[in-house]
Amino acid sequence: MTTNLNLSEKLQDKYQELWVNLKEKGSAVVAFSGGVDSTLLLKVTKDVLKNDVLAVTSASETIPTRELEHAKELAAKIGVSHEIIYTNELKKEGFRKNSPNRCFYCKQELFTELWKIAAREGYSHVLDGSNYDDSGDFRPGLEAASQLQVTSPLKEAGFTKQDVRDLSKELGLITWKKPAKACLSSRFPYGEELSADKIKQVERGEDVLDELGFSQYRLRYHGEVARLELSLDELQLAIDSREKIITELKELGFKYITLDLDGYRTGSMNETL
């Protein structure tokens, strides 16, 4: 275990517990999105289990292409075996109909495929990057993880979101300050049926925002309306980029483009529940 880290005593203890827990696993498949949590989990699992770990990333329609490419780069830097699979959540009616428990069907599809890989390749566990703070949020995917016996080592060791970022920084992971990400299905109001075309429309819209230099953003889909949630300190950038945003989003099929004055916030679609 890396010991020359500038960590609080409490976080050092959590890191030690995480290390011990992973050592006991023996071998594992890690559900790897390239986000802050799963990158830290993959890094430490690689440090502990050496070559007895496999990172698996889904390339479904709900994952932005830019995030998939970033996951490939991160896995290569960590030096871990990495497999890309395709999961088709849209074939599941519960996911496609976009009910509030949509994430259950997504994670059920993903974890089922990961267990198939684990069985085929001889890995004893499937791990995901959920942390302790996720327990207090509305996350139906956690139920799928529980049902399919997927382990969340960061959560078990008591890692909060801030702990994950602090340890990531000390371990030299570039993701320590990466903005929070979520699959593209989270951009739609519950009850709005999902399709590959709608999801691609949102992805291309967010590509516009990314190319303009926004660091934290969501394009929420409301039919003909694109509601933009941006970091409050980047609202001026939105005003300065107004014409380009309007032109390019209208070319994608949106008729009205609105700026949400509440700014970016995670899970804003849950506010209607």
Automatic annotation (TrEMBL):
SUPFAM superfamilies: Adenine nucleotide alpha hydrolases-like. CDD domains: LarE-like. The active site is at C183 (nucleophile and sulfur donor). It comes from the Bacteria. One of its GO terms (molecular function) is sulfurtransferase activity. Pfam families: QueC. This is TIGR00268 family protein.
